């Protein structure tokens, strides 16, 4: 009997793959925000040509958004973003100051994600060209010809010696080279990870049809190999024969995904319990827990957040090198905190795989400035009220498994007992 379920799943998977390729052709940043996880995912690789990755960050970093968006447009941007979080269709037009001499018009639009009940999806688009057409009486503006206006990574390579003679900003961002460094490289440096057979097919296509399309690996400055869809065309420019190379990269190859390191460790608890009994301060207790972790653990720091919901505040204390110099019992608003997210969605834990994708204010105020890239937050309750959150922090992404038991779970009961003693001393 045929398996209709598997057939439907394959059709849906194929649709997602095709749809993703369509999204990459849009001249807009396409995103999805999960309002439960407080995490943003970018669904295409488009970068606003005028400002690299910075424009994307206004959807994540409230302070950066406040600095870049003109004050006259701030309120409507905030209202629109709130509708995104409430899964209400929204659209707004606003202006951003990209540098001292450049202010551009943008449009934010979003709808509830019909396939994910906790998400909103939307686009952020630079509409300065359209606005200029409306506002000007001079007619259609001239089209720019600089290759930095091309969104995909582009290289121009000389036929004569296969050296790179031009590259756009997108190529530099993908390959992690400065523009001048790229101009000192050649074709073989960038495509060195491909087989002789693949390169022979490429050369054959160029000889007989002046163009070639296919998949190749490109090697960046760190030696990582990125899978790209490559389009190459032979052109003549100013009397010189060149190869125009365009690289379509979706940020989903293994070099970009990386290999997660899981930090949900367990340890023998006997010796650690004895050390915990000696602690007379929260900072000492956290330091003891941190020292109990096995060598090779991805955890670089541990933080305790004490929760005072009725006072709309949390007090944080941390141990570990990333938080060196952080004041004990530092106060932050409960609103926008990890604790609020746990309470609002009744989470058994809260794991952030990559803080750079976060839209929580606390992550941008506390974790990202101290180099924390991922964390595991374990809540503790008293009489069904959230009172404490213990947070294991790593300077590497993807360090914790949200489906496994929490790190050092065998020490949690003793930790809460000793914490009470430290507070009451």
Write the layout of secondary structure elements.
Layout: H1 4-23, E1 29-34, E2 39-42, H2 62-68, H3 71-85, E3 90-99, E4 102-112, E5 119-126, H4 128-135, E6 154-158, E7 164-167, H5 169-175, H6 179-182, H7 187-190, H8 196-209, E8 211-219, E9 225-237, E10 240-248, H9 254-257, H10 270-277, H11 282-292, E11 301-308, E12 313-319, E13 330-333, H12 338-345, E14 350-352, H13 361-367, E15 374-382, E16 385-394, H14 412-424
Antiparallel strand pairs: 1-2, 1-5, 3-4, 4-5, 6-7, 6-10, 8-9, 9-10, 11-12, 11-16, 12-13, 14-15, 15-16
What does this structure look like?
- This protein has 425 residues and is α+β, with helices and mostly antiparallel strands.
- The protein has 3 domains: 17-135, PAS domain (Beta-Lactamase, 2-Layer Sandwich); 147-256, Beta-Lactamase (2-Layer Sandwich), CATH 3.30.450.20; 270-424, GAF domain (Beta-Lactamase), CATH 3.30.450.40.
- Helices cover 31% and strands 28% of the residues.
- It is built from 14 helices and 16 strands.
- The strands form 3 sheets. Strands 13-12-11-16-15-14 form a 6-stranded antiparallel sheet. Strands 2-1-5-4-3 form a 5-stranded antiparallel sheet, with helices on both faces.
- The protein is globular, with a radius of gyration of 26 Å.
- InterPro entries: PAS-like_dom_sf.
- This is PAS domain-containing protein.
- It comes from Maridesulfovibrio salexigens (strain ATCC 14822 / DSM 2638 / NCIMB 8403 / VKM B-1763).
